[in-house]
Amino acid sequence: MLNQAENERNKKTGCEFTVEHIPVLADTLTEQVVVPRNGIVVDATIGQGGHSLLFGEQLGQDGTLIGFDVDENALARSSQRLKGLDCRVLLIHSNFSGIREALLSHGIERVDFILADLGYSSDQLLDLKIGISFQEDMPLDMRIDRSLETSAADIVNGMDETSLADLIFEFGQDRASRRIARFIVRARGHEPVQTTGQLAAIVCKALYRPGRKKRDRIHPATRTFQALRIAVNHELENLTQLLRYAPELLNPAGRVAVISFHSLEDRIVKYDFRDRASEGIYKVLTKKPLVATDKEVQANRRARSAKLRIVERLA
User: Fold this and answer.
1) Model pTM score
2) What is the DSSP string of 238-292?
């Protein structure tokens, strides 16, 4: 449900639909980052445009807001949401890993702010075509970018047991990865694993212990689904590419902000920022990641695992 401030922004920008997704750490971001009126802002994961709207409102007619996304539905919704802004709005259907080439193709060499919210929106989690959630039984796909060739079902049904276990351990950080992979291989021997419900049930069966009273804080299949989503969408490789190009794209005093949702992402961001700070390229503005307040978590459960890190480009 939208808060009053969000409703007012929607009215101001002519947004006629109800946006279910609440941008994470929005107030914290706008407290930490103020962009010049004639600045260039890049939202590397524009989604439904929640964060972009906040920074677009800081820009004047000479400013430019650029949004990247591989999800065409997200671009369509953000276009509607941002149409009332005074600044120029440029939406690019591309993964943010290609940020340098995409910006140069539009004649843009330097920007003032790059934001990457690495989470998924509510509509993506509920999209049957994407098949990313086990909360509903969906086709086991997980490709946010529909041009990708390999789906989660391809991995689950085609990868050998050892490689599957390694993937679940590396990207899902699940210590029971060997057992989970064994149960998956056994199940697919009877019939292909084609839906999220099937896979979740297999993982639950693999992790079930008779008489066990302790209840996990997260669903047993969470880590396996995370591992497959990361692998299918090349999430860590894409993040590394974005961070690689960011310094050469920033104006002096320009900033990069990344919101991550699990330790694998956060570790990549932390070490990149730290290493470039030691080289005299960045000034780290968040010695420790900023996290959501209890009030925000109560209003938006997805905020509970969000971590925000920010750096500033030195001259």
Assistant:
1) 0.89
2) HHHHHHHHHHHHEEEEEEEEEEESSHHHHHHHHHHHHHHHHTTSEEES-SS-B--
